[in-house]
């Protein structure tokens, strides 16, 4: 179980290796499912993109968060996340849903330049192996209050919803670090 936001229309896209992918949903994992130098972070936001060619391939951009300054993206979600948290539906039997309305994604587009990429799998069943994972090299910040807002709608047992860190199993992780890129860890 995870917090997620789905979109109507085509709010964004990404191109990888000449293949076009459209943004379909945002998904939050706590703690992060990815590590950098063995370190997990309190939150990972996954921007899930589906192949425009209908191949079933996915491209997921993962943004890692640490405790710190407020992140502007979450200000616009505050009221809706509180509304979700107040919904007392029966978890496991039904999903709580709230229409978020117009959400500006521009603040998620802060460019870092550097990122890790590997071919991997989904982190929840069916764990399909057709995912282009892209983990941004700059760890962003959010406050404890913002982390609590993201997890508040979840039952206690689902607040820690990340899959355990998995072995590479022969996967090659490539780090891209163009000149003048910002990173948040030691190389």
TrEMBL record:
Matches recorded under CDD domains:
alpha_CA_prokaryotic_like
Q: Where is the Alpha-carbonic anhydrase domain?
A: 1-177
What Gene3D superfamilies is this protein classified in? Alpha carbonic anhydrase
One molecular function GO term is: zinc ion binding
A GO BP entry is: one-carbon metabolic process
Per its UniProt record, what PANTHER family does this chain match? ALPHA-CARBONIC ANHYDRASE DOMAIN-CONTAINING PROTEIN (PTHR18952:SF249), CARBONIC ANHYDRASE (PTHR18952)
- Which protein is depicted? Alpha-carbonic anhydrase domain-containing protein
**Which organism does this sequence originate in?**
Aegilops tauschii subsp. strangulata (Goatgrass)
């Amino acid at each position: 179980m995870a917090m997620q936001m789905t979109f109507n229309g085509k709010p964004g896209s990404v191109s990888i290796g000449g293949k076009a992918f459209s943004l379909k949903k945002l998904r939050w994992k706590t703690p992060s499912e990815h590590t950098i130098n063995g370190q997990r972070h309190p939150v990972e936001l996954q921007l899930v993109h589906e192949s425009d060619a209908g191949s079933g391939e996915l491209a997921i951009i993962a943004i890692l968060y640490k405790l710190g300054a407020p992140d502007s993206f979450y200000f616009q979600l505050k009221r809706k996340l509180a509304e979700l948290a107040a919904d007392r539906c029966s978890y496991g039997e039904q999903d709580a849903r709230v229409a978020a309305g117009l959400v500006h994604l521009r603040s998620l587009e802060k460019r870092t330049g550097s990122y890790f990429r590997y071919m991997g799998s989904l982190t929840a069943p069916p764990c399909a192996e057709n995912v282009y994972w892209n983990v941004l090299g700059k760890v962003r910040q959010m406050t404890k209050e913002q982390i609590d807002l993201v997890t508040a709608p979840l039952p206690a047992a689902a607040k820690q919803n990340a899959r355990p860190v998995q072995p590479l199993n022969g996967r090659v992780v490539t780090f891209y670090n163009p000149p003048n890129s910002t990173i948040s860890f030691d190389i």
